[in-house]
Amino acid sequence: MYAWIFRHLPGPLWLRIITSLALIFVALVLMVQFLFPWMSHFTQFTDSTIGSADQP
Fold first, then answer.
1. CB–CB of 11/19 below 8 Å?
2. CB of 35 within 8 A of CB of 43?
3. Which of 9, 28, 29, 44 is in Cβ range 3.0-4.6 Å of 16 for a Cys bridge?
4. Which structural domain range is residue 22 located in?
């Protein structure tokens, strides 16, 4: 499936690589937030740490 998505991305090779890395990063963030909520406790992008004065 990854090869099918990579093959259908527009642009030159370097742009396809950057776009695919961004898509993988977004997919991982969404998986941690919604599929593995127990793991979001260990990450820095939870709602409890955004705007918190305790975090450096």
1. yes
2. no
3. 9
4. 2-35
